[in-house]
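Dear colleague,

Thank you for sharing your sequence with our group. We've completed the structure prediction you requested, and as agreed, I am returning the results in plain text so they can be pasted directly into your records. Please verify that the sequence below matches your submission; if there's any discrepancy, let me know and we will rerun it promptly.
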Amino acid sequence: MPPSTEPKADSTLCLNFNGRILPADSPLFSARERLVRYGDGLFETLLLHEGEAPLLDGHLDRLRRGMDFLGLEGFPLEDRDSVLRQLRKTASMSGTWRVRLLVYRRGEGLYAPPERGCGFFIEARKTNPPPEELPATGLRAGLFQQVTHSCQRLSNFKTCNALVQVLAGRHCQREGLDTCFVLNDRGTLSCALAANVFLVKNGRLFTPALSEGCVDGIMRRVVLQCAAGLGLPTHEYPLQLDWLETADEVFLTNAVQGIRPVENFHNYRYGQETARLLHRKVRERLGL
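Please find the predicted C-alpha cells below.
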C-alpha cells in the first residue's frame, strides 16, 4: 500500500477557536471571511512560561488600543483573567509556549464592514525557554530596502497584514542573514525583522521613536524601563542609517525571544556588554 500523501498534523501546535479546542489541522475560515480577504484583524505574539504570561498586561493594552483604532467591538474575553484562562486552556501549564492571540472582524462583505463584532483564535506552539545568559555569538544583520514601513499610527499595532516583514524575511533567506534592518518612508531606521532596534553609543541607549513606523513593542517598553532603572540615559527619536556605523552595540527585542545582540552589520562589529546587563535585568523583572 503506498504511503499516505495527507499532511500530518503538527503535534506541537494547539488551536483554540473562539473558546473551542480543535485539532491543529482544523479548517477555521471560509474564503469569504474578512480575515482571509482583507487581513481585517490584529494579533499579539506572547510568551507563556509555566502557565504564566509575564507580559500579558502590555499585550492586552496594545491589543485594545488597536481594536479601538480599527473599530473592532465585542471582544468576548472581558478581562485579563479570562484571557489567561483561554491561554492556559490552549497550552499546557508546564513548559514554554509561543502563543499567538488573533482578533478578527466577523463577517463577509466588501471593504466597508457590515458589522463591527469580532472573534478570536489562539495558537500555541512549544518553544525553548528564555536563556539565562545571552549566547556568545550574535546575529548577522543586513539591510532590506525593497519596501519601507509607513510612518503612521497603524504601524504601531500588529495588524494581520505583515507583507513588509514577509518580504524582509525572504531577503534574509536569500542573503543568508539572521535578520535585517527595515527603513521607514523617511529613510530612517524603523525596525528589524520581527523586532525593535536598540543602539548603544557612548553610554547612551537609543531606539527609533514610535513615530518612525515601528511596532509599539512590549519588550521595547520593558527594556526602556529597565534601562531607566539602571540609570542608563535613553532616547527615542529618528535614527539615521549611518548610526549603525558608529554604534558600540546593537541589539533587537521582541516579546518571545527577549534581547538578541547583533554581532555584525556589513563590516561593522558590535559588543554586548549593555545587552547582557539589560538581559539579566529583564529576566529579574519578569521572574524568569
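Summary note from our side: The chain has seven helices and 14 strands.

Kind regards,
the structure core
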